[in-house]
Amino acid sequence: MSIIGQGMDRTDGFLKVTGGATYSAEHAISGLTHAVMVLSTIPSGKITAIDTAEASAMPGVITVMTHLNAPRLPKQEKPAPGAPAGAKLSLLQDDIVHYNGQPISVVVADTLERAKDAASKLQVRYAASPAVLDFRKAKRNVRKPPSQPERPTDTSRGNLAGGWSRAAQHLDVVYTTPVENHNPIEPHATIAVWDGDRLTLHDSTQYLGGVRKTAAKTFGMAPEKVRVRCPFVGGGFGCKGNTWSHVMLAAMAAKAAARPVKLVVERQQMFGPVGARPMTEQHVKLGAARDGTLTALAHDTISHTAFLDDFVEPCTSVSRSLYAAESVRTTQRLATLNLGVPTYMRAPGEASGSFALESALDELAYQLKMDPVQLRLQNYAENDPEKNMPYSSKSLRECYRVAAERFGWARRTPEPRSMRAGNTLVGWGMATATYPTNRQKSKAWAAIHPDGTAVVRSGTHDLGTGTYTVMTQIAADTLGIPANKVRFELGDTGMPEAPVSGGSMTVASVGPAVHAAATAARDKLVAIAVADRRSPLSGAAAADVTANDGWLSLRSAPERRESMAALVARNGGKAVEADSESAPGDEKKQYSMHAFGAVFVEVHVDPDLGVVRVPRVVGAYGVGKLMNQKTGHSQLMGGVVWGLGMGLMEKTEIDLRTGRALNANLADYHVPVNADIGEIDVSVVEENDPHVNPLGAKGIGEIGIVGVAAALANAVYHATGKRIRDLPITVDKLV
Ligand code: MOS
């Protein structure tokens, strides 16, 4: 039985619980100094003066870098190629302030305390200019962003006006979602070390290659001279997909200080210069026939962006293809604010967009007096209606069935306020989840050693998701070597190149490369065996040789076998190595590829206080082959927890006078804790997809959050009769 799919324990679990896993800020480097970023305190304007005299004279202070003395960098017209969102960086090259929280100085001292103390002594004067901070005002000047390749800004199909006028039921409503900030428990952190003209960056990142390319471009140096290391990441969720200003500032400071520099982004600084999920306003119109058939679906959205650079939250992506509506129109517009540049946050677009679409479906179901699951089945898309292509696989019907059954949906009484537990209002709601299946080119390397162990490498990342473990499983299965004798290594640009760990695509991209490299190493060893007169396999056909449990043997005569260790040892004692690369073909020209799921939520609402509790969530997902029962379920559950945070708690409060986040800490910016989470029942339906990639795995990093906020809002409506169209669903909106 293959080890792939089994719930193998995390191979890095022991290191993590014993503190042996070294995170980016924890590398012991001799002569290390400490940098502190100083951020702007106005949302728009110019720096007219920075007095650094007092700070510079303080004990232990090595350098105070501002726009007045920072090294001049090659001018960056365009973002570094390959940096996912390619945000423009704030690298102290001018005096302009685009938002409150923009880096304006870096103070380096021999200790962190001295650096912080000195940073607090900077005297900064500004000439403020009017700032745009109110979304309602910014909306008056919406812009249409340019289309991206294969991602048009606007879409339409069918005759919307006709579908709308023919509809028996109409829904025309607006949903809004707030700014959210990523809050991985490990904040961004960088250690920069120069050795002559070579730069090493220990950086907490989802994309080693992006950091390398950004550094090479920023400093005008060859990429080969930049080494980036990141063996462990304490959570990313999208904010570490980009390379933000602090990474380059650490390198600039290390150069100025002529010492290694450590720069840790403080929790408060996580709210501004390192991205956020933008706020959205989403106008949804649904028209339906009496039987629930959607005749018209319009989803017109505005998300906020920054003056410094653009980011589009693609929140119409779900509406474009989830249902077989007769006519569809989607538009995306931008409203520009004096805030930090927004970025990808877990299921960017799908998470925010599905809140609107899946809430709207529920509202329509009530208008039609129809079961919400039935309404979705009535509009089930057998093929991708947007691309006009078959799905590579789609198990959504099975997901609805499995989740509804495990939840007990049949026992629901649809009338709002009709279900109670004592005095408490009980609500049951559901929503659909979907996320596209992505894959990019990746490389890997494998070696079988004379002691019978194997090492496999790829320059990918483990965001806490289980990459170490799953790649070990794939390598062990392919090599035919027990998993406890296989070591998988990642997190270094010195290793074969892998893509960004974003878009739920690490397993789908790196997995096939690991499989290919392991296959190549095993095939090399087989070739050596059949050509070796001293081997019991001598003269056999290579195709007849199978690898299992550290042995090569013949399928036709299993007693003819030899241990891999003995073979490699006899082969001059040198490891048998192989490189490989794996890339998508043109399967996306033939198939639309998505993971799907269904999520059901129970809420208990206190009728007097409006407090919402979530005793249970049931989700069922069709995600192709699940590579590890344990880490996979854990990741899907983590996505659901994120959805609960999005639905009930998360909101960055922007001060409309100053443009500063008012709740820039984990006491005031609420994320779910253990006490907030009840039972989460996640199942993965059997799904065999031969098209997505050689492993048949669709990616599970993001689909878990999708739909949860809508299912919550739908459950809250069922419990209370109040439709909340503005996230998060807090008590003030319910009492
Ligand atoms: Mo994800 S938001 O692509 O890290």
- Structural class, judged by helices and strands? alpha+beta
Total number of beta strands: 29
Total of DSSP H or I helical runs spanning 4+ residues: 17
Lateral arrangement of strands in the main beta sheet:
3-5-1-12-9-10-11
The unreliable regions are 81-85
Mean pLDDT over the residues: 96
Percent helix: 10-25%
- Rg from C-alpha positions? 27 Å
Main beta sheet: 7 strands, mixed
| Beta strand % | 15-25%
Termini distance? 56 Å
Report the principal-axis shape. globular
* Ligands, ions, cofactors: dioxothiomolybdenum(VI) ion
Explain how this protein is built.
- This protein has 17 helices and 29 strands.
- The protein starts with 12 loop residues before the first helix and ends with a helix.
- 55% of the residues are buried.
- Helices cover 24% and strands 25% of the residues.
- It is an alpha+beta fold and 735 residues long.
- The radius of gyration is 27 Å and the shape is globular.
- The strands form seven sheets. The protein has a seven-stranded mixed beta sheet, sandwiched between helices.
- Strand 20 (442-448) and strand 21 form a beta hairpin.
- It binds dioxothiomolybdenum(VI) ion.
- Dioxothiomolybdenum(VI) ion binds next to loops.
